[in-house]
Amino acid sequence: MKILLTGATGYIGKRLLPILVAQGHHVVCCVRDKNRFYCPTELKKNVTVIEVDFLNIETFSVIPNDINAAYYLMHSMSSSSNNFDELEQTSAENFVERINQTATKQVIYLSGIVNDRSLSKHLSSRKNVEEILKNTGVFTLTTLRAGIIVGSGSASFEIIRDLVHKLPVMITPKWLNTKCQPIAISDVLEYLSKSLLNPLTYNQSFDIGGIDVLTYKEMLLGYAKATNVKRWIITIPIMTPKLSSYWLYFVTSTSYKLATALVSSMKVEVVCKDTKINELLKLNPMSYEQAISRALIKIDEDAIASSWKDSMISGQFTGLIAEYIKVPKKDCYIDRRKKIVQNKEFTINKIWSIGGETGWYYGDWLWRLRGFIDKLFGGVGSRRGRTNKHDIHSGDVLDFWRVLYADKEEGKLVLFAEMKLPGKAWLEFKIINGTLYQSATFKPKGILGNLYWYSVLPFHGFIFKGMLNKLIG
């Protein structure tokens, strides 16, 4: 079967792709930027990648007509736009218009649990998208509604981990007493894959969740128990949504816009109304404790398949990689350094392990300070780290950088700064004829940009020289 997969570069899409291929399907992956899509070699012969923007109908012509089924995995959970609900509506309407012209028999939509009488703006938008998909399509619709998804790399799991590890005592808002029904990412993927072209799921909506109904406070304490640490949580009624958002933003690796969206949604109970789908698909979802245990194992094994942080919603980068991948020279300040490589394999492995827990090899305290300052000014900071300790692909995050280009065989890595800056910045490493070239490029914007460059210039000789020496050995 030929399956259309939207959101192929997202947290769910990346994990669903190999499952669909293993089931024998040919998957057509819809992405807005091909440069951000990484496809493992073993999957390539069963995957087609197309560039589609569902807000731009002019890009629809590349969608094949012989599609058998489609997954709608597009959300704007942390869009910085105030009218994100209008954008989601337009995207859904455009999707329906194009899919109705194909042979698509079924669309599977992953939404949020919407059983509470009072819904957040984000949950209301997801409910509206479901109505659009259900009422205007000639295809059958299967909607799976999930609450908190727990797995290595998920936004919810990362926030829980950050809070528990960093705060022995937590003074928290009252919404931590809100009930939810968390579900393991592996269970979500089973529901998604087993619903595919399954007549039992046609034209129906299902709530999906794990076996436990917990408060967010109980989830935090459950993680603390799983990691053998003691934590104390005190809830107070006076913390406003804005203060709650700042609390999440400064303590965790989440962006402020995502923190705001999460706080809004966390005030709403997300508990399954029924679990009839478990009988239909003969599935037995795991407990919260089991989900946490699995996620921790994946982290220990450095086997995180995808992370919410690698999606564009986690940072400031909004353009296409192709527009930035060629590092400019005109009207730029450039710190260039080079050194003969003694052992190419050693140097490449060092470059490919840079950032995150490994650090930047020299002057790490200055890198951390720069991340802290960036966080104070509303930037991404350096808490995002990196998804894997040794693997890097285009589109990944690396502390406050975004990976534009990564080719290990070529020995070239290009990073783009997502920190708050009066200009644009690149960091580039490349090995040519046995020499490592390291370049820090800054394109200033106005007087502030020029002042910024000269203010940090004294530190460059210290940081970049030291880093280059460490990369050589």
Structure commentary:
- The chain is α/β, with parallel strands linked by helices.
- Helix content is 35%, strand content 21%.
- The chain is built from 13 helices and 19 strands.
- It has helices spanning 11-22, 84-99, 121-135, 155-166, 185-194, 216-226, 241-251, 256-266, 276-281, 288-300, 344-351, 364-376, 446-472, and strands at residues 2-5, 26-31, 47-51, 69-72, 106-112, 140-146, 149-150, 169-173, 179-180, 183-184, 204-208, 214-215, 232-236, 333-340, 397-398, 401-407, 412-417, 423-432, 435-444.
- It has a seven-stranded parallel beta sheet, sandwiched between helices. A six-stranded antiparallel beta sheet has the order 14-19-18-17-16-15. It has a two-stranded parallel sheet with strand order 7-10.
- Helix 3 links the parallel strand 5 and strand 6.
- Helix 1 (11-22) crosses helix 5 (185-194), helix 4 (155-166) crosses helix 6 and helix 6 (216-226) packs across helix 10 (288-300).
- It is globular and about 65 Å long.
- The protein starts with a strand and ends with a helix.
